[in-house]
């Protein structure tokens, strides 16, 4: 039981990080109907900005405090991501209003390649380190209940708590604030929202900015775990099965889908992997998503759409 719980907790913590990236897809799709293929590139760009600013500020301003460097770097990287979001909306998406979905999809794909190339030109192509002080050593808990206890990585635990806090804040933002309600109105019906005076362009800038901040938090966490390298943008591929399971328009769905995939990956790798030669963790999420597309394509939290013909 102790080993099972250890695997279960590991899956839950990994699932919260998947949910954090999936949240970026959900936010933009809810507000604009655009599937943002650039989310992975935004995570990479934000992590690069954080890593380089944390190294540049102490050199430019002449101080040695790691806490101050990380704080200033996070604020500066957040401003950069909001500026990137504003540029994307103003120069790209606002020109493609009412175009076909495939046109918007290809536009975000082009934005992804641009951000990866521009990030390399601006910040360099080396592998960088983000050190925000999260402890790497594991901690032993419940050793009195189970033989050998349960080993939990502190870094994974802190990262999961940060992700859960951000998800909770965004849920409150959508439910309790006027801007959040406007975002939900735009998500339900663009034309109806416009008819009552909600400016679509301002809403889209806000939602892209929020997605940029989410990408920054995800980039800091994953960059701290894996290092900031250009393969970091591929982490977003893990979020695709999450949004398929949970529904592309549901914030709670992103959370539940991430937890299901995180737990499923860990348990299947540990308990089924030895019988199949291992490697299940790599493809488990995509096979599960394929099964959902065949059985319930709208996802766990989606609603069936019935059109009269």
Structure description:
By secondary structure, this protein is an all-alpha fold. The protein is 71% helix and 3% strand. The protein is built from 12 helices and 2 strands. The protein has a two-stranded antiparallel sheet with strand order 1-2. A hairpin with an 8-residue loop joins β1 and β2. α1 runs parallel beside α5 (154-176). The longest helix is centred in the N-terminal third of the chain and has 31 residues, at 2-32. The chain is globular, with a radius of gyration of 20 Å. The termini are far apart.
Mean pLDDT: 81
Outline the low-pLDDT stretches: none
Identify the strand order in the major beta sheet.
Answer: 1-2
Shape assignment? globular
Radius of gyration: 20 Å
Instruction: State the share of residues found in helices, binned by percent.
Output: over 70%
Per DSSP, the total helix count is: 12
Features:
single chain, 309 residues, mainly alpha, two-stranded antiparallel ribbon, 12 helices, 71% helix, globular
């Amino acid at each position: 039981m102790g080993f099972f719980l250890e695997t279960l907790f590991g899956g839950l913590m990994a699932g919260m990080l998947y949910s954090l990236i999936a949240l970026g897809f959900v936010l933009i799709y809810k507000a604009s109907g655009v599937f943002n293929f650039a989310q992975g590139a935004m995570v990479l760009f934000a992590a690069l900005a954080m890593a380089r600013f944390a190294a540049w500020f102490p050199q430019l301003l002449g101080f040695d405090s790691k806490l101050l460097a990380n704080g200033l770097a996070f604020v500066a990287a957040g401003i950069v991501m909001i500026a990137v979001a504003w540029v994307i909306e103003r120069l790209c998406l606002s020109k493609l209003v009412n175009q076909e979905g495939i046109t918007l999809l290809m536009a975000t794909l082009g934005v992804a390649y641009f951000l990866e190339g521009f990030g390399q030109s601006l910040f360099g192509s080396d592998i960088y380190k983000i050190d925000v002080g999260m402890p790497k050593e594991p901690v032993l808990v419940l050793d009195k209940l189970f033989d050998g206890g349960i080993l939990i990585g502190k870094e994974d635990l802190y990262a999961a708590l940060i992700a859960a806090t951000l998800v909770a804040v965004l849920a409150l933002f959508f439910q309790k604030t006027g801007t959040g309600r406007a975002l939900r109105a735009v998500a339900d019906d663009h034309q109806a929202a416009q008819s009552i005076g909600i400016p679509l362009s301002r809403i889209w800038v806000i939602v892209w900015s929020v997605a940029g901040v989410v990408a920054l938090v995800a980039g800091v966490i994953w960059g701290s775990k894996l290092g900031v390298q250009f393969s970091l943008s591929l982490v977003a591929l893990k979020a695709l099965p999450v949004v398929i399971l949970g529904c592309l328009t549901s914030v709670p769905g992103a959370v539940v889908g991430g937890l299901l995939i995180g737990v499923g990956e860990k348990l299947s790798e540990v308990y089924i992997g030895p019988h199949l030669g291992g490697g299940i963790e790599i493809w488990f999420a995509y096979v599960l998503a394929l099964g959902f597309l065949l059985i319930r394509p709208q996802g766990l939290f989606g609603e069936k759409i019935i059109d009269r013909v």
